[in-house]
Amino acid sequence: MSLWLRVLPLLLSAALWSVIVWLWPSHTTPDLQVVAWVNISLLFLLSMVLFLYGIRLFLQKKEPRPGSRLRAKLVIGAVGMLLIPAGTLQIAANQMVEKGMDVWFDVRVDTLLDRALSLAQGFYGRIDQDMRHNLVEYANDDGLLSDVANFPASYRSLNSRMVEILQHEGWQSIQLYDRNERLVAAVQSEGLSDFKPEPFSEQASVTLTMGRISSELLNLENEEMLAVYAPIIIQQRIVALLKVKATLPTGLIQHARAVESDYRTYKELERHRQSIRDIFTHAMLFITLIIVLVVGLVAVIFSRRLTSPVGQLAHALKRITDGDLDVSIPNASDDELGDLVHSFNRMALHMKQNVEAIEKAQVDLSDALTSSRQRQYVLETLLANLQSGVLLLNEHGEIRLINQSLRELLVLQPSDWVSGRNFSDLSRGKLHLVHEFYDELSHQENETLQRELEVVIQGEKRHLLARGARLNASGLSGFSGYLLLLDDVSQLAEAQRHRAWSEVAQRLAHEIKNPLTPIKLAAERLQRRFREQVDNHDVFDSCTHAIIAQVERLQRLLADFSTLARLPKPHCKQVECATFVQELRDLYSAYSRVRVADMPSDLSCYCDADQVRQILINLVENALAATEDGQKHVRLYLTSDDEMVYFHVEDDGDGIPESVRPHMFEAYYSTKSTGSGLGLSIAKRIADEHGGDLVLVSSENPTHFCLALPVQEPEVKSTEQGLENA
Amino acid sequence: MFFRQKKICAKACGWLCKLGLFGMFFLYASYGYSEELADVRVDTTQSVIYCDISSEIGVEKLKLALKEGSLMTYSWEIIIEENRDYWLNKSIGSVQLSRQVVPDLVSRQWLLKDSTSGITNATLSTHKAISFLASLKNFPIIDKSLLQSGVSYTIKVRLYIEEGEVSDHWWDAVTKLGKTVAIGSFTLP
């Protein structure tokens, strides 16, 4: 909620307090206005309600109830719309009353009323003065005084005198009281038949006591009478009281009273001019406040009815936003809000149905995805464990899948051979044969293709069996492309070649070995029996020796052939390495350039001692042959780690040319004229069959061969067998 | 159920607080009008407690009103309370007295009416008319036997001033607002 909306009730409350202070009645005001206090109470009530509401808004930290802000705005708007014209009306009405007051209480009216009242007072005063004057004359009349003095003897004379005065003056009645306030004589215009004695008034007592003439006004039912009292003094003593009454003229006295009443009313109004204005102001304010309260109440009720569906809608929307779709708003009205609620309920229902459908689809998809992932996992595991290199290309020749075996087989750069790269771009150069194979596969009509390829990887020639298949977009996959499988068949080819050579060697040995022995024996026989008979012994000896030497060479050659062909399976056991070292040291003790390093006595390896010895002798012999000239040395030493023992043979010979290096472990490849080319080949084969390896570490300076043999019986085979079985 | 009752109780407490605030406001307002505007003197020497009260409230306005012919009525209410330290004072009794002056502009005299005793007098003196309305002299308020010796008592004097004819409508009792014009205290020996 915005700050101004929070502060607004407090500001309105403060404004109402200002109005209360302004309207607060003064202490010295005698007229306590009930309406003023009612107004102050209403204002106080309003200000308190606004103050408490403002405080509640100010302290409110959590989000208000949905629709409450709209409700507050509606109420404030309704009351505000009412307050503006009401305030204007109040000010205008006050101004009108102010002006009206000035007109009503005009100074001319004031003067007129003063004069009218003066006239009335003058009329009354004149009658009073006349009666007093006449009465004083009669009270001092000697005849009357004589009659009073001789009373009751002069009763008749007194009575006739009083009747004469009554008739002469036109008064209502004349009464004579003695000193003891007793009525002694009376006459009246209507006669004495309906005479009613009156109590002696206080005014009469005062006159009798003080001896002064006085008068008083008597208000009767239908008329007003003036009573005048005069003392009768004889010899400076008050002996009696004469009371006369005269009826005031009815018409005149009525006018006088009317003037008096008007004057009184006018003066009263003029005196309460400010009060009238205040009463009017307070009355108007009271009406305004009542209207404000009623309108506020109606606005609250109306806005509550109006905003209740809106609030419910907002609340329901919040619930939907939070994910609760089980929402339904009760529809209470038939207006547009009701239609909105109805539409909202339908929307919520549709959303719920859609979400349920989506959730069901999601579950199905999740199941399918899980199944797909399982299949993918199986496929990836198969590909990872597959010895064959697998390459999947799409119809555009872009890589979609490549397994680790292919990367290792072709020594591919992992950063280049990634999904999405074009195979044709990557397979230029050393892999052009693979590219040609893919080209042929993609352009041929047949679905599959199989070729043997010979590629050179890092200077090593490898025989690859390439098989390819075209994948057509059919079935559920919708994928079309090419699947290439590459297998390294170098060892298989090598083994096949070895086997072929072995068979050839066996046959050759069998066919050649048999006549060699008679040839040799015949040559020796010729040497023994016919040497003396020939004249040139040197030529004869040379020839026979040559025959015998060449036969022996052929026999050795055949022995090697036979060895290669029938290389026995190694009978491995744990052999101490020191044994080999000591044997070699003893064997080549005559050669000063052979240096055999000492080694730990507890070092052993798992091997066939005879075959390993043969390898070592072969390596040392080759080294000795390379170091025959000059002061060059041959070094033999051992190193080891947790798994392997390494026999190192180094020499400072001329080294091995780079052109020879790729072929040096091939059978029947030799650079020596007398060599069979089988030594290193046999040594390599023995090392392989032991689960080790024989490698050329460096070809010159020094020429360094390393024979690696396992420390213990290798478990690789059993592991591999286990995998194969699985 | 428990939370519903708790909510209702909280709401009721809230409304009680608001009503209390409202009441405090009017208590303060009435206190503002309780200041002393008249003198009261108590005579405890006789068997009946007498008091003299003279009010100077709006004498000038009263004089003007009388001269301009307005009928004025002064109603006095004298309340005797026993003082209590830790509770509201205990009411012992109250006396009411009403006096009225009826001006006659034509004859320039004032009728002095004591509504309680029914005595009516006429006077030509303005001062006498004002004094008749605004002061009570040697006015008996309560018998001494009803009071206790050594106990402190308070006399509150409320004055209701009315201008014009006194109406006897039922709502006059509600709308007529009096003013406490004097507060006196005394203790019987």
Protein described:
In chain A, 57% of the residues lie in helices and 17% in strands. Chain A is an alpha+beta fold. Chain A folds into five domains: 147 residues, no CATH class; 116 residues, PAS domain (Beta-Lactamase), CATH 3.30.450; 88 residues, Beta-Lactamase (2-Layer Sandwich), CATH 3.30.450; 51 residues; 156 residues, Histidine kinase-like ATPase, C-terminal domain (Heat Shock Protein 90, 2-Layer Sandwich). In chain A, the strands form four sheets. Chain A has a five-stranded antiparallel beta sheet, with helices on both faces. Chain A has a five-stranded antiparallel beta sheet with strand order 7-6-10-9-8, with helices on both faces. In chain A, a hairpin with a 4-residue loop joins β1 and β2. In chain A, α2 runs parallel beside α9, α5 runs antiparallel to α6 and α17 packs antiparallel against α18. Chain A is rod-shaped and about 250 Å long. With 189 residues, chain B is of the alpha+beta class. In chain B, α2 crosses α3. The longest helix of chain B is centred in the first third of the chain and has 31 residues. Chain B is flat and about 80 Å long. The N and C termini of chain B lie far apart (62 Å). At the A-B interface, α2, α4 and α8 of A face α1 and α2 of B.
